[in-house]
Amino acid sequence: MPSDQRKDWDTYFMDIAYMVSTRSRCSRRHVGAVLVQGKKLLGTAYNGAPSGVPDCSEAGCMIAEDYELLTVEGQEQMIKKQRCIRTIHAEQNLLLFTDRVDREGSSVYVTDEPCWTCANMLANSGIIEVVFHRAYLKDSRKVTDMMNQKGIVFRQLESYIPPSETLHQVQD
């Protein structure tokens, strides 16, 4: 990028979300989230164990398995989903550590598409937009449908390239 050219706002805020994700100590996925009102940054959060509790790097992941019946191309398929239940998701931490009044009419930039639980929480938080980079295919279709029903702008920055120093290998 030429030195006289500024980053667009989506890139700027997603870069911040990725930088925030570097605070995560989760071995499976580093996720960062940023709350933005207009062009004003109101809060940041990342995924991890509750404060004062050993995290996954210290105590190991607490993996819970879940199964969901989905219809894919007209055929029902049982999908196995694994989730670490030691970790509070970045979106959940963002909602815990920001005020409702600040969230009204705001946008959330998050490195990864929200899971079903986080999407539900975001849908009731007062935000009007969710912008994400990496897809989370396990919940994508139902999350997209719910966001559309709520009238929340839900968009993926597919061509976005994160800063190289923030990259972490994602495990599903």
UniProtKB/TrEMBL annotation:
Keywords: Hydrolase, Metal-binding, Zinc
Family: Belongs to the cytidine and deoxycytidylate deaminase family.
Major enzyme class: hydrolase
Source species: Paenibacillus shirakamiensis
Gene3D superfamilies referenced in this protein's UniProt entry, alphabetically: Cytidine Deaminase, domain 2
Cofactor(s) recorded in Swiss-Prot or TrEMBL: Zn(2+)
Enzyme Commission number, as recorded: 3.5.4.12
Source superkingdom: Bacteria
Record flagged with keyword Metal-binding: yes
Entry-linked InterPro entries: APOBEC/CMP_deaminase_Zn-bd, CMP_dCMP_dom, Cytidine_deaminase-like, dCMP_deaminase, dCMP_deaminase-rel, Deoxycytidylate_deaminase_dom
Record-level Gene Ontology MF annotations: dCMP deaminase activity
Domain (CMP/dCMP-type deaminase) ranges: 8-154
Name under which the protein is recorded: dCMP deaminase
